[in-house]
Amino acid sequence: MKLVHYPHPALRHPAKPVTIVDKQIQHIIGRLTELMYEHRGVGLAAPQIGVPYQIFVMNPEADPQNKEAEWVMINPVISNKSGSVEGEEGCLSFPGLYQKVRRAQKIRVQGFDPQGKSFDRELSDLLARIVQHETDHLHGRLFIDYFNPVGRIASKTALAAFERDYRRDQEKKLLPSNKEILRQLRAMEEELAQRTAQSQTVASQPAPSAVPLL
Ligand code: NI
């Protein structure tokens, strides 16, 4: 599992809710966390490593030593948006591209943590911005979708370069074809559904490493 860059199809593919946290999901969370710190990000969502599951990690301090600031959100749902504030954003799927994006200043977010416990929080400013950006990733929405006309013009060349690099990597067979990537995404979705079904058939047995959610 590696970082994927725009226009990788996983970034536009809506992710599936996660209904079980087993070893494989814990492994994905570990990999997301590792890559977020390695690339000095403040958040990273599963689709950004080619995994179509509703999981993201964040740490507004971008500091691996500060574990208290680290959050893992599973199946997050945003509500009660209020206020509006413009701020500079970047995205690990668009290295080097920064633009102003308008976001709600305050939000409420509900979801699950890796222990399967539900959470419900009111967030504002940077935390609210990160959660909105990462939750968008889980629904195939990207920060470029919110650029204003000036930002769109200013980023045109950069986006064309990402598209060109991506096509070149596919031609060199460094990346699979889009058709093959979509096949892999669907296979991961089916695998998650199967693991969930299997866990439900043994739900009466103690399974500490597999915590069902919902
Ligand atoms: Ni991003």
Summarize the structure in words.
The chain is an alpha+beta fold and 214 residues long. The chain has four helices and nine strands; from the N terminus they run βαβββββββαααβ. The strands form three sheets. A five-stranded antiparallel β-sheet has the order 2-3-4-7-8, sandwiched between helices. It has a two-stranded antiparallel ribbon with strand order 1-9. The longest helix is centred in the last third of the chain and has 24 residues, at 178-201. It is globular and about 50 Å long. Bound molecules: nickel (II) ion (NI). Residues 91-93, 133, 137 line the site of nickel (II) ion.
Bound molecules: nickel (II) ion
Q: What is the mean pLDDT?
A: 92
Helix content: 25-40%
The SSE string, one letter per element, is EHEEEEEEEHHHE
Rg, please? 18 Å
For the sheet with most strands, the description reads: 5 strands, antiparallel
Number of strands: 9
Strand content: 15-25%
Note the topology:
Blueprint lengths: L19 E2 L1 H16 L4 E3 L9 E4 L12 E12 L2 E5 L9 E5 L2 E7 L5 E7 H13 L11 H23 L6 H24 L9 E2 L2
Antiparallel strand pairs: 1-9, 2-3, 3-4, 4-7, 5-6, 7-8
Bound molecules: nickel (II) ion.
